[in-house]
């Protein structure tokens, strides 16, 4: 197939969905991955198909290594290639940072299983296809959280720091055939965050975030998708880097 292929985990909503739609608009075929409800994934797939993309919709829990291997096999069977892998699937538990008793070892293990081990397993499963591509890339979706020491929970912050470190070491291991980079969003206006925080807390955090950001703005999923596309399709000389999309939050004002 002449068209390049992008595989995006957790792409039935939010950043993942925006990325799938953007890649399809720019002439790529896409694999949309979800873990629970197929209906939102199918809606995203329909939009991508309207842009002329061949779309594969696959259910897989990235914390399960066998499911990652099976997903890679399906992509190879259907498309015969993978040019860009976007590890976007993620999870958290909303716990105040000062509430050290609010997290258990099981919470850490569940969050790390999806946010750190999952991307590693996906990269390992797709490495043969990526190495066969002429110009392959992996984009790991992290967060501003480990860069500012703030976020939904201590476990989430630590897991995203681990993802950043994983990206750096695998950029060395898989180079020069495969580039690996991180996109680190700030506070994103998404159903996942709104539902997790609740309307009142979300609105309060939104005001606090905007007032502390140099650009006085919240980040939209489409903003992050643009950077994911750049890192996955354009930035041929960039690897091992963390790219903030935070509206100037870390810069502050």
Beta-strand share of residues: 5-15%
Shape: globular
Q: Largest sheet, described in full?
A: 7 strands, parallel
Please provide the count of β strands.
7
Strand order of the largest sheet: 3-2-1-4-5-6-7
Measured distance between first and last alpha carbons: 49 Å
Query: What is the residue-mean pLDDT, rounded to a whole number?
Result: 95
Low-pLDDT runs: none
Q: Count of helical segments?
A: 9
Radius of gyration: 17 Å
Structural class: alpha/beta
H/E series: EHEHEHEHEHHEHHHE
Which percent bin holds the helix content? 40-55%
List the helices and strands and how they pair.
Layout: E1 5-8, H1 14-25, E2 29-34, H2 38-50, E3 55-59, H3 65-78, E4 84-87, H4 105-132, E5 136-141, H5 145-148, H6 154-174, E6 178-185, H7 191-197, H8 199-211, H9 221-234, E7 242-245
Q: What's this, in brief?
A:
This protein is of the alpha/beta class and 253 residues long. The chain has helices at residues 14-25, 38-50, 65-78, 105-132, 145-148, 154-174, 191-197, 199-211, 221-234; strands at residues 5-8, 29-34, 55-59, 84-87, 136-141, 178-185, 242-245.
Question: What features would you describe in this structure?
Answer:
Strand 2 (29-34), helix 2 (38-50) and strand 3 form a beta-alpha-beta unit. The relative contact order is 0.14. The model has no long low-confidence stretch (mean pLDDT 95). The longest helix has 28 residues, at 105-132. The chain is α/β, with parallel strands linked by helices and 253 residues long. The protein has a 7-stranded parallel β-sheet, with helices on both faces. It starts with a strand and ends in an 8-residue tail after the last strand. Helices cover 50% and strands 15% of the residues.
């Amino acid at each position: 197939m002449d068209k390049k292929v992008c595989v995006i985990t957790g792409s039935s909503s939010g950043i993942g969905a925006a990325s799938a739609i953007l890649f399809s608009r720019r002439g790529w075929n896409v694999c949309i991955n979800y873990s629970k409800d197929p209906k939102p994934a199918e809606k995203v797939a329909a939009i991508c198909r309207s842009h002329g993309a061949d779309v594969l919709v696959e259910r897989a829990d990235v914390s399960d290594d066998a499911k990652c291997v099976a997903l890679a096999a399906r992509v190879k069977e259907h498309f015969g290639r993978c040019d860009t892998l976007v590890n976007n699937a993620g999870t958290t538990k909303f716990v105040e940072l000062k509430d050290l008793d609010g997290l258990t070892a099981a919470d850490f293990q569940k969050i790390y299983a999806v946010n750190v081990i999952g991307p590693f397993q996906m990269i390992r499963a797709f490495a043969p296809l990526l190495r066969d591509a002429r110009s392959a890339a992996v984009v790991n979706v992290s967060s501003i959280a480990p860069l500012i020491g703030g976020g939904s929970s201590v476990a989430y912050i630590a897991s995203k720091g681990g993802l950043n470190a994983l990206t750096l070491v695998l950029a060395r291991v898989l180079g020069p055939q495969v580039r690996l980079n991180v996109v680190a969003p700030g506070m994103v206006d998404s159903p996942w965050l709104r539902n997790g925080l609740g309307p009142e807390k979300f609105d309060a955090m939104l005001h606090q975030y905007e007032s502390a950001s140099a650009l006085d703005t919240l980040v939209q999923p489409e903003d992050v998708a643009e950077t994911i596309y750049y890192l996955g399709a354009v930035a041929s000389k960039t690897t091992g880097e963390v790219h903030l999309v935070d509206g100037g939050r870390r810069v502050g004002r």
